[in-house]
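Protocol step 6 of 9: fold each sequence in the batch and record its structure tokens directly after the sequence line. For illustration, a two-sequence batch is reproduced in full.

Sequence one:
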Amino acid sequence: MKLVVVESPAKAKTINKYLGSDYTVLASYGHVRDLPPKDGSVKPDDDFAMTWEADAKGAKRLSDIAEAAKGADQIILATDPDREGEAISWHVLEVLRKKRGLKDIAVQRVVFNAITKSAVTEAMKAPRDLDMELVEAYLARRALDYLVGFTLSPVLWRKLPGSRSAGRVQSVALRLVVDREIEIEKFRTQEYWTVEADVSAGGDPFTARLAKFGGKRLTKFDLGDEAAATTARDAVRESQFTVTALEKKPARRSPPPPFTTSTLQQEASRKLGFSAQRTMQAAQKLYEGVDIGGETVGLITYMRTDGVQTAPEALDEARDVIGGLYGAPYVPEKARIYSTKAKNAQEAHEAIRPTSLARNPGRMRLDPDLGRLYELIWKRMIASQMESARLERTTIDMETSDGRIGLRATGQVVLFDGYLAVYEEGRDDADDEEGGRLPIVHEGADARVAEARADQHFTEPPPRYSEASLVKKMEELGIGRPSTYASVLGVLRDRGYVRMEKNRFHPEDNGRLLTVFLESFFRRYVEYDFTADLEEKLDLVSAGDLDWKVLLREFWNDFHAKTEEVSGLRTRDVLDELNNVLAPFLFPQVSEGADPRVCPTCGTGHLSLKTSRFGPFVGCSNYPECRYTRPIGQQTEGDAPSGDRELGTDPVTGETVFLKSGRFGPYVQLGEGEKPKRSSLPKGWSAPDMDLEKGLRLLRLPREVGLHPEDSQPITAGIGRFGPFVLHAGTYANLPSADEVFDVGVNRAVALLAEKRAGRAGRGEANALKDLGAHPVDGAPIKVLSGRYGPYIKHGSTNANLPKGTDPQDLTLEEAVKLIAEREAKGGGKKKPAAKKAPAKAKAPPKTTAKVVKTKSPAKKATARKKAPAKKVADA
């Protein structure tokens, strides 16, 4: 019997069918061991010795593999064909050696790029030894990530409370997001106008832009206001034009290569709206196998790759499919050969492609995500082997007879669509547009203006990163590797350093503070060039050109010394440095000549950055006499020192609507009475973007959505302490965004309320607002629950209230553990029934035994008193 070890059960099931009864295929379920999440798992003083540990599930699977190995004639390690796959095989082999489960059994490594019967059976004919250079590259990368995280994070906890962690790659990715935000904040918009006309010149209509007016060529800002633009628009409407010049430049556009991991993530984001994680999950399923006609088949080749090359048999198949579907003109004379850009050829595998192009996506029924992603991969592979598109880049100039007004249209005429018949690559915001497609026109033809319009524009800052553009930027800079992008971006979101709005990365305040802290005190380690250089050295390790421990020593010596230096700084020194670097952000100049750091409440205190276990804020130096505080980043240019400004007048009441800044953030207020109506800005709404319309919408809340169809009781929608909600008969159901409060309908509200009630009935406990994870001491789950009197933390039998004003969604595991400990120190948690009820149940002794009771009773009571505290400590 031959034992085959793979990662996933789905992969094991598929391969087992291909290999037959002589083979036993077992899954390791991914990595079987990891470094324990505690200090000391990597020992720099012991030549970087590493301690590995399997969790309970991993240990059980390793035992199963070891047991199966006892009766095997041969062990075949068939994990994925990349660095991580090589590492999993190494871990399995190391455990089997320690369990002495190998004896004289031959151990071999096989890899296959696709899970098809032919690929698997061919791979079994070409076994090899474990590639220790790839394993050492994995060990170096894992050690580096561990050393950075477990050395730097404690420094953050002490010097910058509220920060949760830092990472070798994640911190550099965060810096990209923060740097882009700073660019946007520094950008100053400028107004300009354009005039466009719908024109026809003997064929299909097209759009042209005013390029000449009053005999002068227009520049971008020549039409600077509405009056000038309106005058020009009216002149265009009243004029007759002739095509005076027609410039045609022939061009060829070649198809893009088939997908790599990063380009697949980028295109799935642009075209399908998939996150990187969602893309990789769907790709994993396509690779491991999908049931088609009763047979499990791997539909795509391995999805973690830097390579763009394709196997010769796949090229031949692609050409056959193209000829059959689109005809001979779409098949190029020779197959297209793409070369990889990967710096390490050992880690560059074949591009991502269908295992068989004959499996047309239109003829298969797949789950929605799998179907859409497979179609994208199929089209990209087909397009990569098609003939180039032939275009004419065309410029059409049209002028009036006196030459004082001119229009210009630019675009392209498609002479032969080639690969564009199948696929056109998506574009990022920053990509240059080549213009739309134009009809064929002739010089000297009359051009008739059907309509003209003047449009107002403002110059725009660079766009915030989407997942696609951030992945593209990281790849361009050489930061991280494609297989890690999904997890890196996920960590940034999970740690609360960024938030996603309209599929764009926005840095949170603690993310900005962390970046500035690292740039100020650990600048070298968040430099783009340094991080990319480290990746190149890791590639040298996997190529066998650099010893992995030499790399670790070079890094650790400098990094450890820097960490020790920063650890010796006072927290106040750190905050002073952040105050200076972040001054324009923390203390914006609101009026000329005024000191932006003077406290607006007491007038004598000095504003400064302060920290707490719930994160950073701006406070007055005269605390506790002056208790002025505000969240960081609330003041903006043009606001009064207190953050107040008028938004306008309520047309119903005639009262003024104000935007104000309070201790817990900005809010809107109606009028100035004794108890004016107020409403805080919901999460995701910024003070600079507030206007009268938005303010009135908030002040009109809660609003009645309609009547519930079951009992005709009203359903209301509003924004409360824990976010947007709908309410009916005492039941609250959360809404995903504040914007939905204003347009949610009855059907949507009824469905949300029904889900909430069904979930509550199924759980039999309070509604969970957030799952924080396992307690670091006993492993029991810690959750934030919604109680009758507000949210609270639950850990075993201990319930701890959240401090007033704390958003449950912002609470971290570390903060929860502290609150639980404080509650237990005060005697919180349920006592054991025996300890609590025993004294109450004691009955009066019979008179005949009174003397005996008197002599023994005190001893029993003393014993009880001594044991009770011990039980209490144990429970805590």
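Sequence two, same batch, same settings:
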Amino acid sequence: MLLPTITFLFLVLGTSGAVDTICVDRNITDGETIVSANEMFELGFFSPGGSKNRYLGIWFKNTSPHTVVWVANRKSALNNTSGTVIFGSHGILSIVNIGGTIIWSSSKASGTNVIPTAQLLDTGNLVIKDENSVVWQSFDYLGDTFISGMKLGKNLVTGRETYSRSWRSVDDPFPGMYTIRLFMVKGKYPQVYIRRSSVIQTRLGPFDGVEFAGRPNSRHDVNRMYKTEMVVTDKEIYFRYTANSTVRASRSVMTPGGKLEIWVLTMQNHEWMQDFTIPTDYCDNYGLCGPYGSCSTDTYPNCECLKGFEQKDEPYDLNSYNWTIGCRRSVALDCGPGEKFIKLSSMKLPDTQNVVFDGTMSLQECEVACKDNCSCTAYANPNVTRGSVGCLRWFGDLIDVRVYSMNGQDLYVRLAASELLEGNSISKSNFSKKYGILIAILLTSSVAVLGCAVAYACKKKKIKRHMKGNRYAFHKMNAAVQIEDLDELPFFSLHEIAEATDNFSIRNKIGEGGFGPVYKGVLKDKREVAVKRLSETSHQGLDEFKNEVICIAKLQHRNLVKLVGYCIHRNEMILIYEYMPNKSLDAFILDETRRSILDWPKRFHIINGMARGILYLHQDSRLQIIHRDLKAANILLDNDMNPKIADFGLARKFVGSDNSVKTKRVMGTYGYISPEYALHGQFSTKSDVFSFGVLVLEIVSGNKNRGFSHEDHSDTLLGHAWRLYKENRSIELMCPSLRDSCIISEVLRSIHVGLLCVQHHAQDRPTMFSVVLMLVSEGVLPKPKQPAFFTGPSEVQSLSSGNEYTITQLYAR
């Protein structure tokens, strides 16, 4: 982050009398003495990253990398090396540019009859003192970094709030879009929010007596590298932490991309080591499961309703349900005497904005208080320390609940009497009633099971009857695919599909690919679907149909399109998918009029979603899959612009590793095929990585790789991106429509990752696991090598493979 060349260094540790201007009118080179405190901190002018602007700041001394903790003039940079720091008798610290204009100053410290002094303390705090006290300090004006001794909170007497705000980019300390602030309302319970502008992104908390509970893998032990503390008094509310004896220092940073990173500087060396990052996982996104919904990373889908609650709408598919709608009570409360509380363990306690807190109540007293108030929906003891007391009572919806695999807390949720089975307290009269209900349930269940068995047998007969319409097709299919592979999917008759699509009306046609035409349809249950019908002229046939069914039927991931069912009738082969209202990615990024709809946050979200979907295919799915045809037209977008990978007709399974496989027939799409596949018929997971890299560069630039042209050279899009990267001009690749919404650090990182993915040699490309980590972290990336298909047209017409016995052919799809 820091280029440590220092100019016009402020040297004042104290002054008296008339106005004093103390500065050094020359350049200070690396290694010269500068203002420091206790060998830990230094103060001076610096230029961040690749910027030429100058800022007065404080940073850690002799650490790798150089780390800035505070910037004075973050809103008003010096654009040259002619700046002066002035410290006057009024105790005001100022930065003056070459024209004599004050571009930054501290607040007025005191009257004129005092002797002001300025000092950089060994805590890293720059203070201005009068004879009796500190009248101004840098710790009251936090930047993006929070270190030991700083306070995150509010002075209730003066009204001053201190909170961290991200830089605009790694090169620009101007206040960015993300803040981390302590929520503090009198009578409420402290917790911390990460916000993007005013929108909550992540919640840490509530504070459990040891730390904020928004950290899934927290460890409450004596070996922690820093101690956290929450202070709540009549005068102030704040959070702070101090490093313990095992580390030299610790810091938290609010990054330009909206992540809170915690770093420690160990005693053994002077290098920073990252402890953890928030958000940590998908469930750290605020309120994504809605009211009374709970998130867990151990289940799929990740959201479910709390016990005693049900989804507000009846979804046709749990995976596509809009969970932000949340859940409702299965049985309404009536404030009757039978209402009790169910204990939910290992939970992240809900948002505390609508709670009442009492620090003197025991857990039993808390239950009584909550039960006596009909509006109280849940209660908990937030404090995990031994013998602790404390009572949180929620009034209203429970928001932002999640399940932890360890170190969660107990939450007690109010439920209606009928939702609870009190086995030890059932009276004899109630026992008979419940016994009768149990018998009725068992009889009903038996009838239901019998009905399901009959229905299943009828469905099997129906499937076989339809498939016997063309015995040759049936036997060929059954020989290549075990019939049970198809039994996992719903079968639709040709009549049902024809009815859903208005007999395959041209009005309902929404596209066409290598498989054949695609129609929009509406099933009897009102579900909107996309109907993919095999074309008689398609290069794909039964093998591709079978391949797609086997691959996608066994895969479930939020970034993969869902296969709803299939139809085989004589010569007809049809696949039915969930309908994607926003169609494909290329309909946006390559369209002059629609590309502005995709601002940078949406594009970066799509890039990350694609990466997670491909990682699932390569590593985490039951069937490890190489897609082989990743392109913009095969990335579909749902209502919320979530990307979903489609078209598995060319996909291939592999087991255990990504060793290359050879094929005599190369099929794919010009501009996305890796060189080893195009030239030698070899494909592997790195082939998908190459295609992903092309997609990333297309998303950032708004240009298609195939057919790309530039007035100054004949490079492909990959070559153009490589040229700009070498000249340190990568930002010029960005689509002009993104200027107002982009986060420069994310754009540059995406381009860099894209170039790593399209390197010529497969072994040089990263795995998708590494790609996902590189996109979400802010560490140093390896330097890319020259990409494949650097110059000339991006398509290859006909190529002789390395195998003398075969000719590789490419089919445009």
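Proceed to step 7 once all outputs are recorded. Observation for sequence two: The first strand starts at residue 2 and ends at 3.
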